[in-house]
Amino acid sequence: MVLTCIINCFIHTIMYTYYFLAAWGSNVQKAVTPLKRWITIAQMIQFVVLILYASQKYVLKDCEIVNNYVVVLFVGNVVINFFMFHNFYQKTYKEVKKVQ
């Protein structure tokens, strides 16, 4: 479980650093805007890693640390978040290329 917390903290540190820098004004915001796409990709990768990490309970049969219901709820939550971020990515970054 520590791994998931470390990954989550790392991604959020990057994300909030971006927001901090973007709040400095339009010049800085223009400079850091290209990072938005990569932050979204990193968040989606994080969700995939979390799903794989949580599903190891079913691969390693002797793993009885977490209740099955907790794993199902956790994975369900992460899958929903992944699809929301994926939808955002498609609408924000893929449709922009079509317009240009």
TrEMBL record:
It holds the Pfam family ELO. It catalyses: a very-long-chain acyl-CoA + malonyl-CoA + H(+) = a very-long-chain 3-oxoacyl-CoA + CO2 + CoA. InterPro entries: ELO_fam (IPR002076). GO terms for cellular component: endoplasmic reticulum membrane. GO terms for molecular function: fatty acid elongase activity. It comes from the Eukaryota. The chain crosses the membrane at residues 6-26, 38-56, 68-89. Its EC number is 2.3.1.199. The keyword Cell membrane does not apply. It is found in: Membrane. It is a multi-pass membrane protein. Its main location: membrane. GO terms for biological process: fatty acid elongation, monounsaturated fatty acid; fatty acid elongation, polyunsaturated fatty acid; fatty acid elongation, saturated fatty acid; sphingolipid biosynthetic process; very long-chain fatty acid biosynthetic process. Keywords: Fatty acid biosynthesis, Fatty acid metabolism, Lipid biosynthesis, Lipid metabolism, Membrane, Transferase, Transmembrane, Transmembrane helix. Belongs to the ELO family. This is Elongation of very long chain fatty acids protein. It comes from Temnothorax curvispinosus.
